[in-house]
Amino acid sequence: MRALLTATLCLAALPALSQPIDVSFCDWESSARNLGEPWEDYTRTFSNGKTRLAMLDTIEPAAGAVRMLVLSPPYDELGSRQCRTLGINGMGFAGMNFDQLSASYDPATGLDFTVPIQVWNSENDSYGPGTLWFRLNQATGEITGHVN
Question: Which residues contact 86 (CB under 8 A, 6 or more apart)?
Fold first, then answer.
């Protein structure tokens, strides 16, 4: 019984499990009308301007209206960058602190990004803090990530 109690307490102390992000081809969510305003506050470039991130706000659904836009290499045959949006559970996030976006680069793996977000918890009808982490491999275009 004591071992079970100890194991339960240890599990309770662990951080919430991470959830994989949805990486989607750009669609209606990536419309210019959904760019956060003022635009200069909600967009940043990396890798000498080759990669651009921007916050998108589609207004609805309120629990998931915010997404991350990623424009990045690789380039297609016309010279256009790939365009992807990031969200979770088939929608976006409840909010994003874009001004706290941080980035790092490792030549072996690519660009890593983190940004604080707000997520909707449908189990108790509330919003809570989270962190969006994602990695971009500019050579392949692969984007992987999770939300904690």
Answer: 21, 22, 23, 24, 67, 68, 70, 132, 134, 143, 145
